[in-house]
């Protein structure tokens, strides 16, 4: 909820902006609704089960998908935090420990809500996540774990950038932890820190926003990245975001992206994950 | 959280406005933090215990009191809903059934957070809520239930209007249920409905905002009511709020109240309670 409240977050719903078909309060309701699943994760439930429950709760509002990708990052992080090791190694232990049943629950989660995703790998059409629970038998036959599913998404054969959230899963959540450090080193109210973390991640050399690339193509996603750099985004910088990023300039960018229907939703997922880590490490609200 | 997100809510924190010392995200954190206590209420825990737990969770942010009064209304309503009778009679059963132990837990809740309240009754200085848990022995000696405490607040001997939330408790929550009906009969996104319900309650003949009266005196509270009427507030009207209330005019009022430090917080409590009832009755997000 801190993520969606942070403003400006160019192209996304935030405290000051709704999209035509998705409103701020639907994110609040989605966030509250996901709580039960997240609490299960904190209590040690399997990643797939906790995720499916969180998505089920999230979808009890009329806006559709609000936090699917965000929950995909949060659930293993919550598990890692509950196990006392909220670090790249700790969360990697969690995701590498996922099973075929976790994968089956992941597919079931797609029954609750329509999610914008790319095409499946050419050699695994039966693993298209859009099949939802209908793909569970294929998951079992192929014996793929949830970690395997994420690896397949990263290695997608269609030349696209793969799924940004899946890439976090299989590489120790580097964007999440780097952004969490940056939020911790930043100054001022947490919602301003969230907004600056968003601009930083949007400017990331290592990753184009998956949702923008899926909806508008990689050229547009690169243009979005370039614009984020113009307002000061630079996730590799050692200078604190408050010294670099001009939120007034980002405000103008927000108006422009909204007008063009550019919606960097995957970047918002990473900000939400980073905020969780930053709160666990002592950033206060 | 829908209450605090509704905008404009003249004089209060909302989606578009912070106060100098109290920010929007602190209400979000307070709302999430209160969830554990509210879930206890839904599970049938005593009103005082559930309230004290909710306030404890609410206070785990750095802004101080965000939803104390709101929770005082919500806890018995949640209990009544869980018991299958969310009505004036149902919630009256709940509050009339409160005990001395509920009163003791209510006093303990004041240990968690500073709350703006009026003076205690002249003949019961030992029941000053500001004593927090130090007043528990006096509560036990006098044998007052939580319902009795609310009656004492209403019958306050200092000539002020008493506490608006206490008055709801001892009279079947009339403002809450009337506003819930109005929200149900209104049109458009729930945050707009919340904003219009706020203007209506602020214009109520039957009740001045307790927090404004406590902080600025009853004259100022009457002026606030008059201004709410000017922008269309009229809780007795049978015309739907969307037909009467001009949210653009309320926006100007919001700027003015904010500049003057007028903060009708008790009216916001009633809106939050009314939103809960409206959601339970089928209004969707």
From TrEMBL, chains A, B:
This is Triphosphoribosyl-dephospho-CoA synthase. Its EC number is 2.4.2.52. Keywords: Glycosyltransferase, Transferase. It is an enzyme of class 2 (transferase). It holds the Pfam family CitG. One of its GO terms (molecular function) is triphosphoribosyl-dephospho-CoA synthase activity.
């Amino acid at each position: 909820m801190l993520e969606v409240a942070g403003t400006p977050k160019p192209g996304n719903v935030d405290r000051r902006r709704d999209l035509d078909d998705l409103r701020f309060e639907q994110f609040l309701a989605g966030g509250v609704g996901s709580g039960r699943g997240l609490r299960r994760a904190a209590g040690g439930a399997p990643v797939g089960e906790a995720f499916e429950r969180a998505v089920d709760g999230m979808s009890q509002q009329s806006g559709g998908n609000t936090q699917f990708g965000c929950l995909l990052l949060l659930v293993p992080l919550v598990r890692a935090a509950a196990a006392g090791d909220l670090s790249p190694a700790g969360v990697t232990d969690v995701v590498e420990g996922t099973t075929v049943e976790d994968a089956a629950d992941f597919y079931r989660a797609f029954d609750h809500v329509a999610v914008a995703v790319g095409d499946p790998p050419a050699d695994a059409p039966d693993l298209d996540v859009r099949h939802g629970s209908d793909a569970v038998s294929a998951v079992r036959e192929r014996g793929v774990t949830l970690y395997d599913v994420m690896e397949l998404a990263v290695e997608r054969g269609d030349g696209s950038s793969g799924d940004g959230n899946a890439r976090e899963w299989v590489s120790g959540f580097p964007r999440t932890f780097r952004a969490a450090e940056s939020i911790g080193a930043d100054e001022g109210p947490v919602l301003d820190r969230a907004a600056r973390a968003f601009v930083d991640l949007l400017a990331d050399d290592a990753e184009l926003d998956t949702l923008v690339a899926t909806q508008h193509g990689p050229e547009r996603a690169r243009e979005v990245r370039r614009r984020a750099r113009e307002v000061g985004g630079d996730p590799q910088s050692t200078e604190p975001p408050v010294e670099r990023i001009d939120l007034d300039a980002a405000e103008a960018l927000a108006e422009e992206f909204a007008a063009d229907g550019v919606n960097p939703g995957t970047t918002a997922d990473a900000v939400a994950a980073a905020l969780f880590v930053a709160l666990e490490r002592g950033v206060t609200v």
